[in-house]
Amino acid sequence: DIVMTQTPLSSPVTLGQPASISCRSSQSLVHSDGNTYLSWLQQRPGQPPRLLIYKISNRFSGVPDRFSGSGAGTDFTLKINRVEAEDVGVYYCMQATQFPYTFGQGTNLEIK
Amino acid sequence: EVQLVQSGAEVKKPGESLMISCQGSGYSFANFRVAWVRQMPGKGLEWLGIIYAGDSYTTYSPSFQGQVTISVDKSTSTAYLQCSSLKASDSAMYYCARLQHEAFDMWGQGTMVTVSS
Q1: Which residues of B touch A92 (CB under 8 A)?
Q2: Pick from A71, A105, B24, B93: most CB atoms within 10 A?
Q3: Tens digit of pLDDT per residue, chain A (112 long)?
Q4: Does the beta carbon of A5 lie under 8 angstroms from any beta carbon of chain B?
């Protein structure tokens, strides 16, 4: 199985300041079709997860442009330009390059 | 509106079986894959398996193979998750999710399962 490791596991951030979450995979996420199937999900308290980013850097419909994704191979990053109160929650990276699909442990974003 | 609507909360006794449903609407159900994801209380997300609604081709996580069964009824645009011989450790929130661009772009609201004697 591909192991997804996120850092940090907890991130206290001041409103209006940037935040960054790292995700590292135990092997390359480049699929044989040339795509890299790394996505980012946000889970607000008491809600189901919500897709933010797919294929490393593609923002999903309705996601604010303060969210951005980058990376390649085994190292990926989710950045939030200016954190807002509604961004509080747990963020997960997920790989769908190889079965079984696997998630990172989650990063808890909280406001200082 | 594109949505996945799951069946309601369940309370079961150890050893009992369970089937929860996930009905899609607002899109061509048969053209997409639907996955099931487990979230134990206070924990992260675990992928159980995925089914292609068009032909019912299913892939399971090795960690859950033999413990769960995923099926689909195209006529009602509904996916199902069956669990048998439930244990207290199966108590969790179970989500269905649609796969598009190899990412889960739509999620059900979740079904809380409690297994207790």
Answers
A1: 44-45
A2: B24
A3: 999 999 999 999 999 999 999 999 999 999 999 999 999 999 999 999 999 999 999 999 999 999 999 999 999 999 999 999 999 999 999 999 999 999 999 999 999 9
A4: no
